[in-house]
Write a structure and sequence with these properties.
mainly alpha; homohexamer
């Protein structure tokens, strides 16, 4: 893990941007680990900053989606860091409970659809060209 | 696939509830396939109806989460049926694009966190007792 | 896909063993595809033959387990070939329905356990040295 | 984690049913964590109780299937709790060994089938309408 | 799918870069689909171009890694596009066979390690700080 | 975990082969855990020895592929043991960084392809008969 003091100028520039974007001095371990590969650090931070910002979806909705993927993939680090992040953006215990319920339901129903080999209904074809 | 006309009273009761809950006559293939196992049909419909309804998370947010899981698990049927469902609840093409971007980002970052074996930061421990 | 007529002696030996073990002339596509890499064909057939045979678990139970994994991984070919195989060994539609219900439940509960970060109970430690 | 003493009547009712169904005073951590969301606790317990009971598949076979999914998804908690559960229902070390062998084989062969893009054989189509 | 003729200047710029980088006029469907979300198109192309280029790993090795992930995740499109790509860079049928064998082995052994709950050996700790 | 001193002749024979093949006295925990099921131990070692040896792909390339699968599946043990193994065969920190970047990219792009339901391009059909 690369601390700010021992970081190259290239890495420091990313750390500085993380700090000013998030208005905090705290750099979490994910970035300190990625700093071993400065190109991946810079690219991953740019992508994360761009994608997780407000757009047509608000930042909290994006955190829910991120958490849903992380729980499904069983990524313990991501679960902890994005739970913290979602709480900062307004997630309550009750919202977390509903989120987990949807994630569990989708994981179950995905397998029922696969296992029974359900064919896509004609009227479900098409939106967004698919 | 069990059509309404050939369904047992037990299965018909579920189909009737799907129709009245969704205000449509349409029963999609997922339920017609599950009807081969009436207990699973009834249990899955009850769970889906309860979980996907408005709560502290609104129904569209729940569809985003459901889609995120289905894309990650590569469930083609679920992707189609819940894209249709999300569109009904207000998802635009631009929202779908942002959703996919978050799903892709989370799937990438999950692997970076796993691969680098990033340790959970002390301050990320605790919310909701974990 | 390598047909028997165009197969090398090495591949034919495996096909012959598949036929005599299964008491059928039919060679399914999986083996014909693997025949492009004769070492993988031979090794995979040997492993499959040894593992799927009766042991302390009976062959039908093994098919249920194989199907559970294939549904979870969404492997369409495996789902079809091992459903056929399980039917030959006695799986009924009702058994298939219960199997799918367990697979869906486990996929859901796996995510609830992960998402809530549930700690392993002291008394669950130990069996088989873990 | 919600202990019995601090649980609401709604949660206590589920705990009481777990205790009487399993003939034990022990409530494992999974349920104590879910108790933070009483609806999910009740729904998950009802589903688990119904699905894991004896049907056309016996309870031990269902535990094997549950374990196969949990190993494939890498759910450590589920692996421990359902190994304990399976041992109670008669799983021996030798059965566990065979179970793991089938799980590993299926995970390997799933990828060979996907990677080679094997087409489903005509005669594997059809059982249970697929 | 957005064709070059109907693409916005922003999308055309990406298509032009794909064409000149790959020395071909051909734009494959992946990019035409992403063009519905120009930001994701640009970001994904930049990342792909940077990551898949020669570095301390050569481009063919990177294609093997990409294929290994795509087979494990069962992404049919990715499997086809990156098989084509790997063939262009020198992958032979024999290399593909060995690649699939490693992918299958790793997927099997991953589950044996998880299922037996194997503890990490002391001497395996440490490389790259983990 | 079965130590050499307490191992049956069948298990010892495998341990001896591991030692002589790898020119070390060290037997890592994976094999000691599998030794509880001697058939799986022998079969898994034979497969691993055969598949991971030099062929048309060199051993280091095979370790990269193995690691890519293990990171994607989140197998902590496999990640540690094969990182150690890859380092022995020449993997540098820079190679590891590039490897992780490709793994993350593929996991992201797999979901973009799935989520947008991208159709396979005509010219990507065919290599190796698919």
């Amino acid at each position: 893990m690369i601390e700010y003091e021992h970081a190259s100028p290239e890495v420091r520039a990313v750390y500085d941007d993380i700090r000013s974007t998030r208005r905090t001095d705290f750099i979490n371990n994910f970035w300190k680990a990625l700093a071993n590969d400065p190109k991946t650090l810079a690219r991953t931070w740019q992508a994360t900053k761009q994608i997780m910002a407000a757009g047509t979806l608000d930042p909290l909705t994006k955190e829910f989606v991120y958490l849903a993927v992380s729980v499904t993939n069983n990524c313990d680090y991501c679960l902890h860091s994005h739970t913290a992040s979602a709480v900062t953006k307004g997630m309550t215990a009750s919202m977390f409970g509903e989120l987990m319920a949807v994630v569990a339901l989708a994981n179950a129903n995905n397998r029922l659809a696969n296992g029974y080999g359900v064919e896509v209904d004609e009227r479900f074809r098409a939106p967004f060209g698919r």
